[in-house]
Amino acid sequence: MIGNDIIFSLSVRSVRVHLLRSVLAALGIVIGVVAIASIGMMGASMTLSVTDQLSDMANKLTVTPYRGGGGGMMGGPGGGGGSSDDDAITEKEFKTIQRIVTKYGTAYTLRSESDQIEVGSDKGRATIYGLDTEIMREILTVETGEYPKSTTTVVVGPTLAERLNLKIGSKIKIGDPDEGSTTTVRVVGILEERGMSMDLSTDMAIIGSDKLFVGIYGGEGEYDQVNVVVSDLNNIETVKTAIEDELNRKEDTVTVQDSSRMTESITETVSTMTTFVMAIAGISLLVAAVSIFNVMMMSVNERIREIGILRSIGTQRAEILRMFIYEAAIIGIVGAIIGAIVSLIIGYVIVVGMIGSAEYFFAPGSIIYVPMAMAVGAAICIITGIYPAWRASNLDPIEALQNE
Amino acid sequence: MSSPVIELMDVVRVYPLPSGDVTALKGVSLRIDEGEFVAIMGPSGSGKSTLLNQIGCLDRPTSGDLFLAGKNTREMDDRELTNLRLSSIGYIFQKFNLIPLLSAYENVEYPYIMKYRKNDDTGKVRDLLAMVGIDENLSAHKPNELSGGQQQRVAIARALVNDPAILLCDEPTGNLDSQTSLQIMEILADLHSRGRTLVMVTHNPETATYADRTITIRDGQIA
Questions:
Q1: Which residues of B are less than 8 Å from A4 in CB distance?
Q2: DSSP-derived secondary structure for A194-238
Q3: For chain A, what are the domain ranges?
Q4: Subunit contact B59:A398, Cβ cutoff 8 A
Q5: In this structure, are residues B93 and B174 in contact, taking their beta carbons and an 8 Å threshold?
Q6: 10 Å Cβ neighbour count for A283?
Q7: pLDDT in tens, A211-269
Q8: Could A313 and B101 be called an inter-chain contact, meaning their C-beta atoms sit closer than 8 Å?
Q9: Does residue A111 sit in helix, strand or coil?
Q10: What ipTM was assigned to the predicted interfaces of this complex?
Q11: Domain count across chain B
């Protein structure tokens, strides 16, 4: 219908006659759409990337000794809390946890200590983990080399390996020679990068067997942390409550943490930020609306006589209204389409630049901001056009005809 | 005996102004029959344009009745009056009043599209333009590329495209030189001879001689 609709073609011609003016008005919409869409996409991509990283651990719980102040968000392993502390998870407690968890998944113990290390002449500090050798095979991935089998062999994290130039066969001296004896271990494997994680951060760590760890630091039958892997995500809460109920019955002895609260709070922060910035971007659409309004009023005022002619030869009010709404819609839709194309380009550059991957950019949750911003831009245009169009359609034909 | 196409009964039009009401028409009664060519004359400010606007349904009487083709316009809403203007009335203005965004052809076709909701596929627009002396080459031009006489020819074709019962001409030659005026009046006279009803407002006695009947308005009343 619109194809040969003479009212629509009058609107198109009017836009074309005042091309520069219309383009400038559309530019406002372009900028508004670009601002909203690219910021929206950026926020969504960031949220997606964070949740993706964290959801890897969504099915994990960490159980750490209760340290009074409630454990802190990232009160992960390593840190300073060594085995010399009084608070540790005892073998008995671990058995209890294991008994609770059996139904839902697996639990394993973890010992950790931060210590001085020496590789050749290089000195540094690293986290040393003690893990069961069987568990090690399950939860860690060796990129090159193999898993440690004896009490003198270890695997190292990729960041540490790179920093200290460690290779398979390299020797590491653990411990401060000034304070006591040192232990020399041999690297047999280098791990895959694992990233920051709540349960176990291996990138900058040395991982050896439980026996090796106890051999250096002592602490037989005591653990720094118990990690629980739950096979069904829905049981996380149940397991968490069960452990807490069992072990903290008389007094608080352990802190059980899951990643869901962390995920939630990070996601919430990012989305609050995005919404706020998007609201600011929305102001640019408001400015665009004012400029469209101005252009439409100008268009109506310039064409008062023409409106008079159209009315006098039998054009209905509704058709005059339609003519001016179309005009605003053309400006809005063209602006929104250009804005969508530009925001795809700009959004892509920003997302790749900030997150380093376009993977999240094309996710539905992110790309949805383009049609959304387009719709908002076009809708604002059309709504802004309503008043000028209404005014045009309500002009008195005789007065309009007398207008010069 | 021909039937009345236009009948005004005691039409009064009052313009309410802050400085006091102005009565432009003080009870005009008038009957115009089918096929008549009536000239309305009178000095400026006499109310002749107001009268034409009443007949053309661009305005409503403050009191009194206006019958067009037997129908009382008092009972019509804006939508119906607009339809009446589209289908039953053809306007020819002093200032031609073509739509600047449309070509000559499209200007003539516009009321046809408004009425039938489709483009003219009967060749009517082309024939009407040929009848008023606008060839195909000229009909592709926009109004501002045409001379005054050519624009008025296009306007006449436009007024005729929906076969209106009445042709209303408001000073049709007022903006034209005498040579062109003559040509335009010849076209109007020709339309009259083919049975069209014409009502023409003019203050040129020479133009008025083409009409069957001349009505003179003075101070809002028929003199």
A1: 118-119
A2: --S-SS---TTEEEEEHHHHHHHH--TTEESEEEEEESSGGGHHH
A3: 2-54+264-402, 60-258
A4: yes
A5: no
A6: 11
A7: 888 888 888 888 888 888 888 777 888 888 888 888 888 788 888 888 777 777 778 88
A8: no
A9: strand
A10: 0.94
A11: 1
